[in-house]
Amino acid sequence: MFRLKTLTILGSKAELSTLPEGKLLINTINAHSYNTALKDPLFAEALSCGDVLIPDGVSIVKACRWIGAKSQPRERIAGWDLFDYEMNRLERESEASTAKGESPNTVMFMGSSQKVLDLIVKRAAEVYPHLKVATYSPPYKPEFTDEDNRAIITAIHASNPDLLWIGMTAPKQEKWTYSHWSEPLSCRHHRSRLRLLCRHRSACPLMVAEPRSRMALPSPERAPPHVASLHPRQHPLPQEHVDRETLQITLGSNHQPPASPQQASIKHQALSKQQASSEHSASIKHRASSQY
User: Fold this and answer.
1) Whose CA is closest to 37, among 77, 1, 82, 67?
2) Could you tell me if 158 and 131 are in contact, meaning their C-beta atoms sit under 8 angstroms apart?
């Protein structure tokens, strides 16, 4: 039975440096993936049987504390933390290797569209200049055929990466990786990440995101109406926001303009909801241990 109380979860960002060398399957878990795993046995098995499970959500960190779980992660380890650590480490190793006249290390991104992968290759050349970057865009479909799977594995073998990132959205990516783990995938490190390369909604803003807003929004033409209406390329920063930021810079970051009656009412409602939420959380903590 899949239970949070018995899972082995990495405790902190510092523990990333203690991961052993060799072929490792690393997955992330948050509240959504936990609830999905309760209804998907293969996904639950993939998360339970991987080499490392990372708490990519404060909800997991707090829940483990409340229920007295076997693992007591001390902080959230975001997918970006893992990405940043692994890529920087590989970049340093590759820089040392190329200085000795050896071949550079290879990182491979498997997933997403070719357009996004091309953007990542371009950005990686700037941020990680000593790495060789390989990519593969699998077909967009709910399930791969045997031919699709062979093509993916052949591409991985051809690249022979030192680090492999798989991004096909959860739970598809975890289930695919786990199901093919026994096959001789040719790579030194194997990282399966949650939504690393999900179209333009990348978890790695330094790689793909809109530089101005630090958000990975699609183009106005591809954005749904409710997103397009807020798109930064469609609507520049309102002048009132510019004036407020200028005032705060002039008077100091601790200065806050007086609140209007409407703002005061909204703040009061928010505080009331926060208090009610805290009381509700306290009432369910004592039941959580036996249930999860």
Assistant:
1) 1
2) no
